Amino acid sequence: MxxxxxxxxxxDLARSAYAASNGPRTTAxxxxxxxxxxxxxxxxxxLSPAELRSALDELDSIWAALDVLEVTDTLIQAAxxxxxxxxxRAYDAVHLAAALALARDEEIAFVCWDRELSEAAGKxxxxxxxxxx
Length: 133
What we know:
Elements lengths: L1 H4 L5 H10 L4 E3 L1 H15 L5 H17 L1 E3 L3 H14 L3 H14 L5 E3 L3 H9 L3 E3 L4
Parallel strand pairs: 1-2, 3-4
Helix pairs in contact: 3-4, 5-6
């Protein structure tokens, strides 16, 4: 999500994947993660106050168009299993568990720049963006 909000490495790829997607989805925690990430970028002087405001406005705009998956007890239980199986961070396990639930009913692409999370998703046969070597 952050790559959609601020210019950084692979932002063009993220924006292209988002534009080409058929009904982009994410979990509700993404809003907190993205808000935290860009706010911390401002704290670290990577964004100006105006850039932060623009990023947060863009987040709200994108968020309104997303299909947002609730974090339910069922998802939490599945995420705990993915955390155990792949030794993932908590929110990463939630994202992977949600993607795996969606992938039971349809083919999806998993967009992620975190190496550990991408490797775990790849082990489940999810199509990855960016593709992993």
